[in-house]
Write a structure and sequence with these properties.
The chain has 288 residues and is mostly helical. It has 8 helices and 2 strands, in the order ααββαααααα. The termini are far apart.
Length: 288
Amino acid sequence: MGRLNLTAFNVRRTALAKFKSKQIPALPNWVDIVQDVPPAQVLVRQQPVKHALTKVRTRTLPSGETEQYEQISASKRSKSAKARHVFQPRQLRYEEDSLRRTFFSDHPWELARPRVIVETSGDQHQNADWSTGLVQPGIPLSGECVVQRQLWLLQNTPDITVPQAYDIARKEFYTLRRREERRDRIAAEEARHMGAKFGKSQIQIAMGIENHMYNDWEKWSRQTVFEQTSRVAAFEGTPAKDDDVLSETALNEDLPQQRQGNARPAIGSAVFSQQAQLDARVQRRDVQ
């Protein structure tokens, strides 16, 4: 663990020695204070406090009345814990942490929604009343609303379980999300009816990117066919010119087009099947 650093305990002695050797012109003002109130000399490191997980629940008594009580669960020390971790601070645990993990693991795309995390005063939570639902003044609808609503249900609804509270808050969240999407869709339709023009939709942007990648792949496939054809022609001893290879490839691609009328040229797997047919013809020619 290293040697103990006692520099802070010897600061008064160091100041007196420097004044005696005339390294400093005068004694500091805190010399007498440090003599009267010396620093603590506890050299034993204390283990950090273990933070218990506290849960508030409501139960129904045999008399029919309800009462709130606390469930305190202390964290157990793992048997595989290493000695160097003994003096590290313990992790703070709250019940909301497990509720957040459950919700965002089921709804990962909620984390992709843009959120404004800048608060005006920081006291928005004081004006929230989660007994009324997920819609609160000054708080936009998000996964945190579901967590706080579920926590309120667990603390105030008698004999309710975590899955039951989660289902109630989750269904309320779905209803509000559908209402928001329906409102935005109607507003966009009304704006288009009045002459507004929006940019490309997400689907159109995605299709444009997909078409661009498909064109790049088609160009690569044609280049690959050209290189393979040139390699076969060079192996035969009669290197073909670029125009000959391209014309032969175009002729092979035009055959299905002539059979099918105005169909598009062969691309994709058809290109490779035509190349396989060309290789077979070359092999038969070599055998003859």
